[in-house]
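User: Could you check the structure of this?
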Amino acid sequence: MTLAPRSAGQTPAGSAAGTWFRVHRAADEARLRLICFPHAGGNAQFFHGWRALLPQDVELLAVRYPGRQDRFTEPCFERMDALADAIVGALEPYLDRPLAFFGHSMGSSVAYEVALRLEQRGIVPQRLLVSARAAPHRAKHTALHQSDDETLIAEVRRLGNLDAEAYDIPELRELLLPVLRADYRLLENHRPQHPRRVRAPITAYTGDDDPHCGVEDARTWSELTAPGAFDVRSFPGDHFYLVPRERELLADLSDRLR
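Assistant: Sure, the predicted structure tokens are below.
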């Protein structure tokens, strides 16, 4: 398939790409596009600060999941395959430059599924960067989406989410909880029995005090790429280590994308 040329940083008006991606930084001569996938309950704004810390020739985009921010009237996806298919379709205008993916927590699994679909079309991301989650076939089986509100919120607090105080505000809680529950439902029902390897090299990141994903959990991603195409890096911190360690993480990530 031949794609029409497009200047870096431009998003076709009214297109699916404009709906699905927030361009945090456009690069006129982009060497690479880094696509970021948020965590459960998270949104594209989570990656806003990264634009100042990436190389100038890297364009930064973040996925805008339905059900939050300016897509809050849209229903959340309930199946991983449907979500990944929709993101791949929306990526069409951005396939004129090499891509790399970064996913945090739930976003790691979404990024993996999107990478698989692109590779079926002969488009191999330069690197798949996954954070704070075990490989989908090795993740611990949980059913938090079936739990009561207080249990679900307690899990968010246990992970160290800096935005957890929003659940103390009744108006925000009413808006945020359905999205969080839907994301956990999607994630917890995603249990591939025979996962395929990606051709892209994988780097796994985690916090050394993450109660959800320790270093050994992060290492399970080595099973989903070729031998010798995997490495792992841990930083001080919990499940959201990447907030206080943002500068260090972005320095490491930038080196891997050169």
